[in-house]
Amino acid sequence: MRNPLFSKLLTDLRKIDIAATSLRIEQLFEHEPDRIQRMSVRLPGILLDISKQRLSKKAHQVLLEMLSKSGLLSERARMFEGEVINYTEQRPVLHVALRAQEGDAVAMPQLLAEVLAQRRRMLAFAEEIRSSNNISDVIHVGIGGSDLGPRVALQALSSGTPDGPRVHFLSSMDGHALANVLAIANPKRTLLSIASKSFSTLETRINAASLRLWMQEAGLSEQEIKTRCVALTANTQAALSEGILPEFIFPLWEWVGGRYSLCSSIGLPIALAFGSKVFEQMLAGARAMDQHFLNAPVDLNGPILLAMVDVWNLNVLDLRTHCIVPYHANLARLPAYLQQLEMESNGKARDVDGLPLPYQVAPLVWGEAGTDAQHSFFQWLHQGTQVCPVDFIAVKTASHSYAEHHSQLIANCLAQSAALMKGKSLQQAHAEMMAAGMSAAQADALAGHRAFEGNRPSSVLLLDKLDAWHFGALIALYEHKTFVASLLWGINAFDQWGVELGKNLAADMYLRIRGQAAPKFDPSTESLLQALK
Ligand code: F6P
């Protein structure tokens, strides 16, 4: 199943690269008059500009050709048709079905009917809570994909009017986080939304148990607690065994990966905080991007182009990290969301057949909101010894009326992207210092420090604005990009066996920490356990 073309392609691309890298990005603009036309692409609600990538026209063409022949298009069709493409778990991958609408022509009408019915149930519940006046706070308990999506969404949409209950998120089992939430919420007016696809995740179980105890200690009866607990899960049986009432269980399905579950019942907090219409707008934006991914030609297809750039940067230019810088305070948590999406999906060393991969996959994804990031790690981006491609994400129209702020923000975003490409030569740095009145000796000594190598690649994603629709589109863009990259690398993006080992060891470690019998660990761990006594 491994993409057999990929290894050959890498050899071809590396040859092309020798020619491509001899030209700086700025020179590529001079040599390629159609560069903007080819590399600045209109997607639903987003302008994607990849023209400042270190990718020559020739390499771009070869990549597009490879993409068309790679089998990616048939695998994309197989995903939309509900075929089993999560090979190691023998499951279809259908998060796109979560955004489908009444009347959509889909391969599985039965499944669509169920998705729509459950969505209606969940949204009706959200509206009931919003209008009841009994609930002032929602504590959403979940981790990983059961936390990051709604958490990022609530922040992203916070410029709207969150006119529902306040939502608090509890993910880690760290008691400090629990204590912080309990200090604010009122146990008699709180709804617990227990989100766990498996309904077996340790952190979520511990937090849910402590929260129920908190309600009990506040004098609520067992029955009252039951009417304040909802489960968002694919494991209905486990939720029932935990005493959740059937009418308070909102299902998702095994064919929704945790990190792809934002548009399922896991997104309930969005509907609770902003209302069902906003939730539906988010689905509509994601659906528009799904349709774009499915139908747009390869050379204009946002997810495919972004994956192509990732492959080029990692496998040809050997750039092993990828920085995400959203120039929007409400997207500050987006890098964390994308970290799970991309690194849990593609952080693998084996192809779909279980064979060791002969090339690198999945760059390290990291980032921080601008302009804060400019005053921390941008020094490293501009002058460090490693080159790291950046995705700059900005919005055209702000959701506030401080025009001066927005102009400055966007100016900084575009300036950083341009500066990374442009750099500043030694001669230029030298001339500037001489013009400012420095002596030649001083200018000689400082020119190296003040020069910028430049030629550092970045993409710009310019959203029309940040509302639920555009947020949905942005998330779907990165979801599909992650999938396309996995296809090119020949790996399965939808399992995550790598998270198991640490979880299993923690069970024995817990016994040791509590002074109970369990196997011995390595000398380092044993000495740490000793220190904890
Ligand atoms: O630790 C990995 C993981 O399984 C993620 O893939 C998932 O999003 C998270 O844990 C939470 O899982 P669950 O929703 O089953 O509680």
For the sheet with most strands, the description reads: 6 strands, mixed
Strand runs, count: 13
What ligands can be seen in this structure? 6-O-phosphono-beta-D-fructofuranose
Low-confidence stretches: none
Number of helices: 22
N-end to C-end Cα span: 51 Å
Say what oligomer this is.
single chain
Q: What structural category arises from helix and sheet content? A: alpha/beta
How much helicity do the residues have?
40-55%
Choose one word for the global shape: globular
Mean residue pLDDT? 94
Strand line-up across the major sheet:
1-2-13-12-10-11
What fraction of the residues are assigned to beta strands by DSSP? 5-15%
Using only C-alpha atoms, the radius of gyration works out to 25 Å
Brief synopsis:
The protein is an alpha/beta fold and 533 residues long.
